[in-house]
What does this fold into?
Amino acid sequence: MTKPSWPTDLPVLPLRHTMLFPAMILPLFLSDANEKAVLAEAEKTERYVFLGAWCGEDTTCAREEPDQPSWKGALGCVALILKNTPMEDGRVKILVQGIAKARVRRVMARSSGLMVRVEPLVETDMPLEKSLLPLVSKVRQMGLKLFTLRGMHAADAEAVLQGISSAGRLADFLAMNLHLDPHQCCRLMAVVDPSERLRAVAEALAEELQKAEVQQEIASEAETALRRRQRERYLREQLKAIRRELGEWDEDKEEWAYREKIQAAGMSAEAYQVAMRELDRLVLMQSDSAEASLVRTYLDWLIEMPWQRTTEDRLDLGEAARVLDADHHDMETVKERILDFLGACSLKGSVKGSILCLVGPPGVGKTSLGRSIAKAMGRRFVRLSLGGVRDEAEIRGHRRTYLGALPGRIIQGLRHAGTKNPVFMLDEIDKIGTDARGDPAAALLEVLDPEQNKAFSDHYLSVAFDLSQVLFIATANSLEHVPLALADRMEVLTLSGYTDRDKLVIARSYLLPRQMEQHGLQPGDLALSDSTLTALVRRYTRESGVRQLERVLGTLCRKAARHRAEGGCSPFRVFTNRLERLLGPSLKDPSLQQFPGIPGVALALAWTPHGGEVLRIEAAVMPGKGAVVLTGHLGTIMKESAQAALSFIRTRAGRWGLSSDFHEKTDVHIHVPAGAVPKDGPSAGMALCVALVSALLQKPLGQPCAMTGEISLLGDVLPVGGFREKALAAARSGLDLVLIPQGNMDDVAQLPAYVTRTVHFKAATHMDQVLGHLFGPDRGAACV
Ligand code: ADP
It folds into this structure.
């Protein structure tokens, strides 16, 4: 081996990121004190150094242990320091030129740093052989592609690659430019056969090329997106400028006003994104186009929704009780349950998952109770009437693609309330219908379900709105028509109708003062005695609640106001005998009008969602062939009751002096007038039977009396439901006798004293007792 022209004992400069190959030049920046010490050592070795692959922190150990194996046998490059420039930041920049590949023979420790003795690596490089040409040309092609991808000019890259005339040099040149780490470079250096080295480099080159291509793709995609955005912004600015020129655009005022409002609205992240997107669209539209006005309306809805606004809950039970008492007479049990409910809410600290449902006839104060709950809690109150709602879109809104689309009534109600935690009354939930336009009840289920309503999605808004803080209160006249799944979710509070006594107190303490105030009257301007008020209640109203009463009082207040306006003296006195002149003829109970003395008429008591009713039942018999006709819109159960009553009478024919085959020679017609009252249920059985017997015997009932009770085929009288409403209806109609099943006697004890004082309740266990009482020789004595 010829002796090299450079010293063989050299200081080591470990490289971390790259490796130098012979005949190539590399700039290096030295910052470490050890590295700078190598420069001083190099001065002693004619500025030659050995560049090796950095082998971790243990290079320092190599200095302490001379036989450090990690350096022994290691490959590297002997280099000449061409230039050495200290920099302002304390580092030193050196320029090194690769001289020869070499291997470490010995490691020598010096106090000043690590020295190694190296020997040159024998290489068999030679000019290009013919057989290598295809590989070389392929590698050159790949190299060219890589350099151009990295931004080098193609002609320059080609000139450099073509200028390298041997396979080994080409391999070394590419290896150095492949951004390989020093260890990989050393592994390549170890391959002494130039053609093999070129093949290995070709593999690494293919890999690097692939990486560069992917990077290039990503970069160009990002660049395209950036360019598109810039282009859009540029075009938008231009468009604005043109509009400004044409006088169509009001100096960005609208856009900025919207932007500020959107930012101030406190929207959810989702709503904010949608609003900003719509605003961007709006900016591009012609400002007076129809579409722009649709977008504006939509943005207004989004902005005005109470995304964050709430009122602070006042869950003071004492105060709540005071408010409920101040607004409503009596209703003790309902008030108690409302206070229990508020108590639970105050413990939980939220109303989540609580839905109240107030059930009762119209005018008994369901809506005003809801209003009082809101007042007691310090919340806003909104009311949505569901009566006749058949279209799901009324709850959930129309999609914005529809012309004239609007949000559903829930969202409308919340915007109207202005807070996200109002008391929301869903009025007449039992009147909700279903048809081809969807099922509003299903949509309501979503509204009321605490699991789902945190993100209620209205079709118009198209972004989720949180309903979980809303306190929903539903009202219904009866639970019968409320979808089961809905009824299941709610806590039901039942309100029953008022007695005349209740109505008197309500009228005196609540309705009259309110009506007087509404009509501009002072407290002393209208005088009404209790007896006149009672007459008013009895003669001019026939209802379970007090709505009609309030209207009648309103009429009287208007009369008083006119009297005052005409200069009349105060107070305007209303006497019982003036009622007819002031209010017109009183209501007459049609069921009582023709009562006395007509055979075949009986009065039944019926329960309807609007309270109790007195129903007149008529039966007529005529010669015929045993036909039974039932008219008056009767339900199936009532028809069956009539059949059972007839069969029972046939079993008792002898007792009442009827021939045993009377049913074969007579046709029976049962009719129940008052077609508007829904008539079904078993409780008219007793009245049907009485009417039939009265018609067959041609004997009228001795006195006006009403009755309620289901009868069995064998004549047993069975108890009925809705007793309180029925009893109140009887009292309202001025009846003083009511025949009832023995099983309902307990309910009589629950009735207000005023009813039991005026109405006499006679109990029976069997129809024989009832018929004996009404038609027998010992009339009036047979019942219990
Ligand atoms: P509903 O919703 O049950 O049909 P409302 O709440 O509209 O009935 O009541 C009708 C009117 O009767 C309201 O003015 C209400 O204040 C009044 N009202 C009903 N019940 C009472 C009561 N117990 N005390 C005082 N006012 C009452």
Q: What stands out?
A: The mean pLDDT is 85.
